[in-house]
Amino acid sequence: MSNQEGKRTPLYEEHLAAGARMVEFGGWLMPVQYTGILEEHQAVRTQAGLFDVSHMGEIEIKGPDAFSLIQQLITNDASLARGDRVIYSPMCYPDGGTVDDILVYPQGEDKYLLVVNAANTAKDLEWIQKQAEEGGADAVITDLSSATVQLALQGPEAAAILQPLTDVNLQDLGYYRWTRGRVQGIYCLISRTGYTGEDGFELYLDPAEGPQMWRGLLEAGRDRGLKPCGLGARDVLRLEAALPLYGHELGPHITPVEAGLGRFIRPEKGEFNGREVLKQQKEVGPPRRLVGLVMQDRGIPRPDYPVSRGDKVVGRVTSGSFAPALGKNIALALVEKGYALEGEELTVNIRGREHPAQVVPLPFYSRKKKGVS
Q1: What's the CATH superfamily of 7-53+148-239?
Q2: Is the model's pLDDT at 370 over the cut of 60?
Q3: Using H for helix, E for strand and C for coil, what is the string for 16-42?
């Protein structure tokens, strides 16, 4: 395993010691699984899982024009990112295609932290710098990715595991809120966010403290069923929760409106990249829509498989998998708007054969409903 190519997070040796199977993802060597995807998925849905997500990128923007630059870059309203409030937002090109989807953390006056997708970090940094230069923004843009370890503690037991270890009252930390404090004596940014559809926390800390934090959390959570989890389980969890993955549900040729993210687009805030296209799509509807499909047989849909109605190809699968929470095979697919209605009977071409699928409401799973939508 050690001769694989790719960047390594500060927890690489911890993963090897735990028997993880490592794969390349976004230029990084990351654990895809430890004991198995199904077992790790079950841990997060019923107890808790711990993920190394240090491959994610962190970009700081600070200076007098930091706010106005971010307002130009993102589709959501940056004025909502204030105090302890985190916001999620697509970041778009002028034609409405998606550069990335990111989190924005306010860090005091004229200072913000952007959390971006691993494979997009270099591209995003270049795009942000280009936008700043073209707009003459008085702002300093810094890549903090190598100075940050990010861990995600996710699942219904996450708060019970974390609370005895921290000086922060987690009951006061609402969803999409953040604070700074100590966990196991280690200073970190604590955010009530995640990518699994469950309650949970993301911790940002100094890379030198990463292995100690990882080991300490796993030890402290053992009696509550905490397990180390890989990217395989994370992908299934986010798919069940219908959370988009860049390169699948989002990309340069997919707008956030098509991807079902219209609620994160705020044309009323003023000018931003892609505003006119996205405003029009919100008003009249996009040409394609992201839908949920539940397979009606045992076929497993995979990305780029054609979706049809009769003899007509009407779209493509963006993500697909067996969904343990449902006991069924599911997919997200971009289809022509005329075929995106709930209950629509479509087919997915899997290795040359048409397999029946039905359009269902999203998400497939939510922790409130604890099951199929």
Answers
A1: Probable tRNA modification gtpase trme; domain 1 (3.30.1360.120)
A2: no
A3: HHCCCEEEEECCEEEEEECCCHHHHHH
